[in-house]
Specification:
Elements: E1 4-6, E2 9-11, H1 15-20, E3 23-28, H2 31-39, E4 48-51, E5 55-58, H3 60-63, H4 73-79, E6 84-86, H5 90-107, E7 111-115, E8 118-122, H6 127-130, H7 133-147, E9 152-157, H8 160-170, E10 175-177, H9 183-187, H10 200-208, H11 214-219, H12 222-229, H13 231-241, E11 257-263, H14 271-291, E12 294-305, E13 310-321, H15 324-345, E14 347-355, E15 358-359, H16 383-400
Parallel strand pairs: 4-6, 9-10
Antiparallel strand pairs: 1-2, 3-8, 3-9, 4-5, 7-8, 11-14, 12-13, 12-14, 12-15
């Protein structure tokens, strides 16, 4: 029996077991929906959907009817007609996230934020002052409930991977410990989808081969698994299936990418509408990049078609940049190349991510040999002029709001939801 503190099912593990499992994965439950239920008493205990055309979050009461994040709101309401649909309040979610991370920081200095609603915490050095990791996790849950008013699930284990799996299994509003001497007994009966890296496609390949549980992956040799998934994926999943994960909790780690996406909804969308959405996304992510004092070398375009299949397309810049127009020109080229697929399959979501990030000033400088007549009609502005324009717009938007100055193509259009992110 695994140690747990789930409503109506409390079980305290031995001090010895808890003391050797020192990593916590804390994950807020149905975060956006829980904030709405916290702030509006009439929503408590009712199925709640956050979003407009697309479900951004669903309460557990709505999930019980099969409502899932990223599905269309129309589909969600067919599954759960009695659901209450509320518009997102990103400022409220950002404030709640800050308050929860204050609780994390008060618990231990070793906090690695994963997103605005989850983090890893290392409590290995706190035994003398704070008790066992299980006791620390129980107090953390109580503090989040008391100080922020939100439910949170915590998994406790020896590794980050197992702690995250434990929190997923322990949801909602639970606390689950995986003792080191019971790791494989806990892990092996679980479905393969619990392993990091096993999505719909990989799961289909594994189940087609007769593998449905983590234990069955462990039983198959890495060489045999490679014939199904390839060498790299086989090695990765085989290690996880045997609970091997040497990664430590990292603090002060800077993100590897900056991204944003816009759900367009079902139906046809004109090229001008899609381009406007893309331009708004590039404005947003480029501004975040400059605010963090960073540059990017790779631009990634993410698309979701009408059949909900997703693709990504990327291009690496000749020189790292944080200029809006440089990024936008590249993103538009990727979008143009994908237009035949869009015309054939429809488009429900467009996203932009900037990767291969570096600190501003670390990039290789290029000599300004390029003349105006060397650039094509769609080329970006000269570097100095482009940087001055970006800097001016950043100042205006910081002072007067993100929509104080905008592109003419965006006037009167839905700019999408700006999802809060962890601070840099």
């Amino acid at each position: 029996m695994f140690g747990s503190e789930i409503p109506g099912q409390a079980a305290v593990p031995s001090v010895r077991s808890a003391a050797t499992a020192t990593i916590l994965h804390a994950d807020l439950d149905a975060f956006y929906a829980s904030v709405e239920q916290r702030d509006d008493a009439t929503l408590r205990g009712r199925p709640v959907i956050v979003g407009g055309g697309v479900v951004l979050a669903a309460s557990y009461e709505a999930k019980a009817f099969g409502v899932r994040t990223a599905s269309s709101a129309a589909q969600a309401l067919r599954l759960c007609p009695q659901a209450v649909v509320v518009p997102p309040r990103m400022f409220a979610y950002a404030e709640a996230s800050r308050a929860v991370f204050e609780v994390f920081a008060d618990t231990t200095p070793l906090v690695e934020g994963i997103s605005i609603d989850e983090a890893f915490l290392d409590v290995g050095g706190l035994a003398r002052v704070s008790g066992t990791p299980f006791e620390i996790a129980a107090r953390l849950r109580g503090a989040v409930r008391e100080r922020v008013g939100l439910p949170i699930t915590v998994g406790v284990a020896r590794t980050k991977f197992l702690a995250k799996v434990a929190s997923a299994v322990g949801k909602p509003d639970g606390l689950l410990l995986v003792p080191p001497d019971r790791e494989l007994a806990f892990l092996h009966p679980l479905p393969i989808e619990r392993l990091w890296g096993v999505g719909k496609v990989t799961a289909g390949k594994l189940r087609g081969y007769g593998i449905g549980t983590v234990g069955q992956i462990a039983e198959v040799s890495e060489r045999e698994l490679a014939t199904v998934l390839g060498v790299a994926a086989a090695r990765h999943l085989h290690e996880l299936a045997w609970a091997r994960d040497p990664r430590a909790v990292q603090t002060g780690r800077r993100r590897h990418s900056v991204g944003a996406q816009h759900a367009l909804g079902r139906g046809s969308h004109s090229p001008a509408e899609v381009d406007a959405a893309l331009a708004a996304l590039v404005d947003r992510v480029a501004r975040r990049l400059r605010a963090a004092g960073r540059t990017c070398r790779t631009v990634v375009l993410r698309l979701r078609f009408g059949d909900f299949e997703r693709i990504t397309r990327s291009r690496t810049l000749g020189q790292a940049s944080a200029r809006t127009e440089v990024i936008l020109v590249t993103a538009r080229e990727l979008l143009t190349a994908a237009r035949p697929m869009i015309a054939d399959r429809g488009l429900t979501l467009v996203g932009v991510a900037l990767t291969n990030l570096d600190d501003e000033g670390a990039e290789q400088l290029a000599l300004p040999f390029e003349r105006d007549f060397d650039r094509g009609a769609g080329a970006a502005a000269p570097p100095e002029r482009g940087r001055e324009l970006d800097a001016t717009l950043d100042v205006l938007r910081a002072k007067f709001g993100a929509v104080a100055v905008t592109r003419a193509a965006l006037l009167g259009r839905d700019r999408g939801v700006s999802v809060p992110i962890l601070p840099e």
